């Protein structure tokens, strides 16, 4: 992709001894702000002709497809390029990509649409307009050929990188037509291909960014090297909400390489040095005093008690309701109750937070990995005091995002530092410890579920009470709906919940906030809610004496897509056939991010309690599949991320700060934990669902239900490292 | 001055000998393929070879390195090492950030055990991948062992 090529140039420059400056070809970016959005945006598209705003074609047929979302491993770069290329009739071998710079989007009334990359929406929320972009460009190329040949455009067909005219046998490559095509008006509302005519969408094409990710050439923001660049290590008040009270700069100012010791906003201090290692070494020696503030009182025990109170509180916000669950439960002969819980979790992207910034007079430039280019531009402008149109944001590949890089705190810090050292680029890198202790954690919640079973063992009433922290209350209180965080009900709202047929249903949320910052996290809310509901449904099946699959099937009769994907997983796993001796199965399903998922886990648990996850069958119906191999990779990745949360990871709070500091205390899943993951793609077409997150919701409950089958134990509080799985 | 042999090139570097090899590679030599993930020998993002031995460079003072260092950049001139080829064939990388370390760890494993079992892989491949590419890494390693990369 263009961005990567540009960075390669950079890497070369560094090897040559900081002699070459990073530079765009003359005035490219300035031009963008003043001209139509077709202007080349990065060196990757320089020398080519924009045909519409999404496609740039060079004389040698190189086809640059513009990508507004961010690539963080989820394959969206390749998937979005496939969508455009198919409608364009591109020769896939000639396709490359470039990021749309956020300032170009800003200067052109957000012509490239949404940049936010989260909620598994990179593809499903841009599919229509990016395909339109490809179709418009193809139409322009066909029109250009028709004009040259003096025939009707309707007789011309753009396909595999060329326009052909069947009657005369004439053919012109896109590279030959681009210049003329680029001058034509961009048509609107071009008819899109029917799914049956797709030639690039739906193919398991190799990703466009793999080679550089196998030879060290891929450049992430942490790798940025600029002439005269200084490096910064930062310490933020370890207590949430605390402030910087003071620091003794002279104590470290004589240390090797140290150039500056500076406050960063009101809650952090940084050492700036010639290298990051020098900065970090000096920072560790820097005497700092903090004003910890009231946040220092916060701790895990108090939080747990606060949440437990919410489980029975009389007031709660309703997310899904039918009949009279409380009334039926109060009178029911047979009720079942259980309480579950899930901890705070750091995202722990493998690339720690980092950002490079440079203030030059009234101009600001930043180099950063971000899930939201628009928001980064706005935050950088605000932190610097420079107007938006004086800011450049260079987007890099992300060494993981998972929601964390949708936040702008690290960008703001870099900008605040750069402001104090004008004219010099400053690269701020968080240590892993800093990253672990200053997350936007997956919110902590508890959940109490109560059900009434009738004489036949059917669920007559279900009350799901979630108690816990709200992401929106912390991050975006303006998005609360009369004080209610509807996102808390992800997976449980009528549009997603599979068990709406339960006659008496109440799903509600008692918001109980903490001093800990919370944020969006891969599959957030779904991955806690699915544990609660799908494990509890399993409990009900056991009480009713029914097979967990049969029990769910009966309850999902009116939710055909949920049912179909559940059946797909069950069938592949061989549910109903006996598993090998010592092996036990668990099953579950969920709907989220526009997709339907289900999983069957096979585990063994020794008498002493050693768990082995042997096999996971994960079925998914995302409607249409853009790239089956990449969807499979996302299913594998989501399962693995969910497995870390299931087995090991938790953040606890003492004295208002996070206790865990690195991967020794915050363990994550590794190779030895990883079972055979069998992905079942069960797309029905007809809709576009997400794929980056949905499977995480079914990872943990499938395994937990299998553990019950193996041990008779219901583990209701995560992670499993705290549970005793030994059994008789 | 610290003397260092990296990918067959000799360097003399003016750096505090206590600086971890990782940061010398990244900051003094500008070789950024080797990554920082934890700094405490937990994640393996910084994995290189020193005299053929798989080594987490974040905990290794550069002054103590006397052997030949091999980094991802020196594995092959054109990304054609069988392990790189297998990574490509099996589309292993997602974000890619861990993959330099994963590849260096896999190369060392295969050098030592050309036909590793699943248990060998579990034991040798302890690098963290937050994107969850473990299954593909396993398959890719087996494909190299089977000569099918
Ligand atoms: S950075 Fe060396 S093991 Fe993590
Ligand atoms: S590919 Fe992202 S951490 Fe491994």
Question: What does this 3D model show about the protein?
Answer:
The complex is a heterodimer of chains A (728) and B (149). By secondary structure, chain A is of the alpha+beta class. Chain A folds into three domains: 19-205, 2-Layer Sandwich (Aldehyde Oxidoreductase, domain 4), CATH 3.30.365.10; 221-293 and 353-429, Aldehyde oxidase/xanthine dehydrogenase, molybdopterin binding domain (Aldehyde Oxidoreductase, domain 4); 300-344 and 441-722, Aldehyde Oxidoreductase, domain 4, CATH 3.30.365. Helix content of chain A is 30%, strand content 22%. Chain A is built from 19 helices and 27 strands. In chain A, the strands form seven sheets. Chain A has a seven-stranded mixed sheet. In chain A, strands 13-21-20-19-14 form a five-stranded mixed sheet, sandwiched between helices. In chain A, strands 1-2-3-4 form a four-stranded mixed sheet. In chain A, a hairpin with a 2-residue loop joins strand 25 and strand 26. Mean pLDDT of chain A is 93; it is low at 1-36. Chain B is an alpha+beta fold and 149 residues long. Chain B has two domains: 2-74, Beta-grasp domain (Ubiquitin-like (UB roll), Roll), CATH 3.10.20.30; 82-145, DNA polymerase, domain 1 (Orthogonal Bundle). Helix content of chain B is 33%, strand content 14%. Chain B has helices at residues 21-28, 82-89, 99-112, 118-124, 134-145, and strands at residues 2-6, 9-13, 47-50, 53-56, 68-70. Chain B has a five-stranded mixed sheet, covered by helices on one side. In chain B, strand 3 and strand 4 (53-56) form a beta hairpin. The longest helix of chain B has 14 residues, at 99-112. Chain B starts with a strand and ends with a helix. The model of chain B has no long low-confidence stretch (mean pLDDT 97). The chains are: A alpha+beta (728), B alpha+beta (149). Chains A and B meet through helix 1, helix 8 and helix 18 of A and helix 1, helix 2, helix 3, helix 4 and helix 5 of B. The structure holds FE2/S2 (inorganic) cluster (2 copies).
